[in-house]
Design goal:
The protein has helices spanning 19-26, 71-79, 93-102; strands at residues 8-15, 36-40, 45-52, 58-65, 82-89, 113-114, 118-123, 133-138. It has 143 residues and is an alpha+beta fold. The protein has a single domain, classed as Roll (2,3-Dihydroxybiphenyl 1,2-Dioxygenase, domain 1). It has an eight-stranded mixed β-sheet with strand order 2-3-4-1-5-8-7-6. The structure holds cobalt (II) ion.
């Protein structure tokens, strides 16, 4: 079991085929304005961050594949996009990794990986009852 309390839902990631078309809904219809739109070559994606609820809130992240060899690109090809993962924020990712390993959780990472927001690890959907789950330790919190 985790020996620390999960802080909040950090983000929900949605894979999209066309970022501008997706923003035509999330930004222009729902009115959630992106705080940033970045290229993140390490994961082969463009990311739009759509914050909700202020500094202690959550984000919707829209992911558009920019590299056709990545898992996100395969997800888009196979499923046509949609909900990709949910991310929970923890205070200490190293401790979380150790706790999850001890609990026999189905980890997809041997060590925390640099993400656009901090350091993250992923858990296989088979071990989480159907959803790809990310845990993150934020390096900095934008307030
Ligand atoms: Co994520």
């Amino acid at each position: 079991m985790l020996t620390q309390a999960i802080k909040r839902i950090d983000h929900i990631a949605i894979v999209v085929r066309d970022m501008e078309a997706a923003l035509g809904f999330y930004r222009d219809v729902l009115g959630i304005h992106p705080s940033r739109v970045i290229d993140f070559p390490r994961e082969g994606v463009k990311i739009a961050f759509l914050p909700l609820g202020g500094p202690d809130g959550s984000e919707i992240e829209l992911l558009e594949p920019t590299d056709q060899t990545t898992g996100v690109a395969r997800f888009l090809a196979q499923r046509g996009g949609g909900l990709h993962h949910i991310c929970l924020e923890v205070p200490d990712i190293i401790q979380a990794l150790a706790d999850l390993r001890a609990a026999g959780a189905m980890l997809l990472d041997e060590a925390p990986r640099p993400t656009a927001d901090g350091l993250g690890i992923f858990l296989h959907p088979k071990g989480t009852h159907g959803v790809l789950l990310e845990l993150i330790q934020r390096e900095t919190r934008v307030s």
